[in-house]
Amino acid sequence: MGGIQSPFFKDHPHALKKKLFPYGLYILLFIAIFRLYFFPTPTAGGATTTATAAGEHLLKPTSPPPPSKVLVEEDSTSDNVCDYTNGKWVHDNKGPLYNSSACGTIKDGQNCVSHGRPDMGYLYWRWKPNKCHLPRFDPNTFLQLVKDRHLAFVGDSLARNQLESLLCLLATVSVPNLVYTSGEDNKFRKWHFASHNVNVSVYWSPFLVKGFEKSVEVPYNRLHLDSVNDVWAKDLDEIDMVVLSIGHWYLHPAVFYYGDTVLGCHSCNDKNYTQVGFYDVYGMAFNTTLKALVDKKIDVIVTTFSPAHFEGDWDSLDACSKTKPFEENERKLEGMDYEMRRKEMEQVVAAKENAKNSKDFRLEALDVTKIALMRPDGHPGSYMYPNPFANGKRDRVPNDCVHWCLPGPIDTWNEIMLDIMKRWSL
To answer: Which residue ranges does the record assign to the Trichome birefringence-like N-terminal domain (predicted)?
Structure first.
């Protein structure tokens, strides 16, 4: 997901396989690992499981997850904190704070207007929580809150998508200067806002932990769940706040390691490894990452999993052709989207509990999974490339039903993030 390439969307899974983990040796290994290293994980009902139980969860198939209504409401820890997860998208005549032609930091594949997307209705919706008010983004307030600080986005191309949204929002009052760029497709970049002495950077790290991406020679990812990725961890001493955003790369074939030991693999049928699902290793990756950030006392915001909206084949004309949001009860949060969010929320709650006595560490989930699920109209779709129908309709065309148009729904992610930061400053 470094760039929007057709093979990614072609291979994007729509169904998950849950398999048994039959070997007793691995049971003992997982129990030992979790006892020695990992935090206790709260269950959906609020109780805390033991480290052994957390490890054993990897060994057992789980029942299908329930709909989202109970889960999304259960994470509230205070009546004084706004629950943004439940609400609806309402029409808004004001439209976005910026336009695509005025912002120069939008990745080409997400600049839907310049690529000829004919419908503009997707730009005129705002998220309205059921029980509280979400203010419009105020760039001056954001810059003041991060004055003299370094904010880093760490993750995959959804992290970059949110970062570029933030840059466009802030550029309406202060011009960002690109001071560093490196890597294929500019995967590592840093901007400086001289008006407030603010640095904003992005680090490509689609697993958070140490990992090696698949290639032609090795057609599966290799993840080391016991250590964070040094491409971003080496700079932690100069970073004040981190936004984490990953997920979709965990759906691809992968072999999972802990130290030098192979724990199993996901969809790597050509290897003689035990097949495991990726939900629990996904949680382990967040556990390792959050532990490292707690130890460094760096403020953290975890942007939860952002669902894709493929309907049918990745290259069909109707892959993601909707032009308005889902109604409030039209689509339930379930299946893979539910499970990915649940694992993230479990680790956020556990990390906050372990750091509750620390006055120098702040952590919050930017829970956008349900909000994103309700916006099938916000993706580039076939307009990931310029003017895809300039020469007439085609039978097949690549579609991006994962990332978000800029301007677009992902600007709301940053509105919620700003509100979290304002509450931190109280």
So the answer is: 81-133
pLDDT of res. 53: 33
Burial grade of 80 (CB within 10 A; 0-12, 13-18, 19 or more): exposed
Strands (E), 261-387: 261-266, 299-303, 363-366
Please give the residue that has the higher pLDDT: either 208 or 3. 208
- With tokens 């991060």, the residue in question is 146
* Residues whose CB falls within 8 Å of the CB of residue 245, separated by 6 or more in sequence, listed in order: 153, 154, 155, 156, 158, 159, 162, 302, 303, 306
Segment 49-66, tens digit of pLDDT: 333 333 333 333 333 344
Which phi and psi (to 5°) does residue 193 adopt? -100, 100
Residue found by looking up tokens 């789980």 in the block? 62
In this prediction, residue 19 carries a pLDDT of: 37
- Whether residue 403 lies inside any domain: the answer is yes
Whole-model pTM: value is 0.83
Instruction: For tokens 């599966």, name the residue.
Output: 220
Domain count, the chain: 1
| 102: CB partners within 8 A, 6+ apart | 171
For residue 367, give both structure tokens: 């829970």
Specify if 14 maps to a domain. no
- How far is C-alpha 187 from the geometric centre of its chain's CA atoms? 16
381 HSE (CA, 13 A, CB side): 25
Structural domain containing residue 129: 92-424
The span from the CA of 22 to the CA of 186, in Å, is 43
Question: Is 71 inside any structural domain?
Answer: no
Determine, yes or no, domain membership for 69. Answer: no
